[in-house]
Amino acid sequence: MTEHPHDITRGFKDVFSRLASGVCVVSFWRGDSIHGFTATSVTSVSLAPLRVLFCLSRGSDSHACLRPGLPVGISVLHAEQQILSERFARRVGEGEGYGDVPLSPAIRHAPVLDGAIGQIAARVAQIIPSGDHSIVLCDVTDAQASSDGEPLLYCKRNYHRLHHSL
């Protein structure tokens, strides 16, 4: 990994902290248990084929579980789901888990969170190492948007809501 002077790294982080992002939970089955993580680095890639990507730290517990072909759910969180974002953002300790998290029956083949304003089922297509993270490309197998609710946003290291449209 290339080292940078502290001020460049800090400036880099500060710049991207100002880029408002929707908040998602990427989830998958590990045996009979749901696992996952909070991600703000989710984006559409292609319409043909339908493809999305997310980025994930190579040092995270979830990274070790990812493999091509793994079904994943991507839940675009509602503004009222901050607690789920915070929960999936931390490491799960021994005896903890997400078994009590309500899943949506609307999307099959991948665990997506109930109440999310957008839900995507996908399969991991490719994992591309890039520095201390990986870019994970996924082929979409199902997608559904809710007509209700506003997204949970993350900007300047804090959660936010939409206030109005321009």
From TrEMBL:
Molecular function as annotated in GO: FMN binding; riboflavin reductase (NADPH) activity
Superkingdom of this protein's organism: Bacteria
One GO term of the biological process aspect: pyrimidine nucleobase catabolic process
InterPro entries to which the protein is assigned, alphabetical: Flavin_Rdtase-like_dom, NADH-dep_flavin_reductase, Split_barrel_FMN-bd
Xref: Gene3D superfamilies: Electron Transport, Fmn-binding Protein, Chain A
UniProtKB keywords: Oxidoreductase
Domain Flavin reductase like intervals: 16-161
Pfam annotation, one family: Flavin_Reduct
Protein name: NADH-FMN oxidoreductase RutF, flavin reductase (DIM6/NTAB) family
Organism, as annotated: Ancylobacter rudongensis
Record lineage: Bacteria, Pseudomonadati, Pseudomonadota, Alphaproteobacteria, Hyphomicrobiales
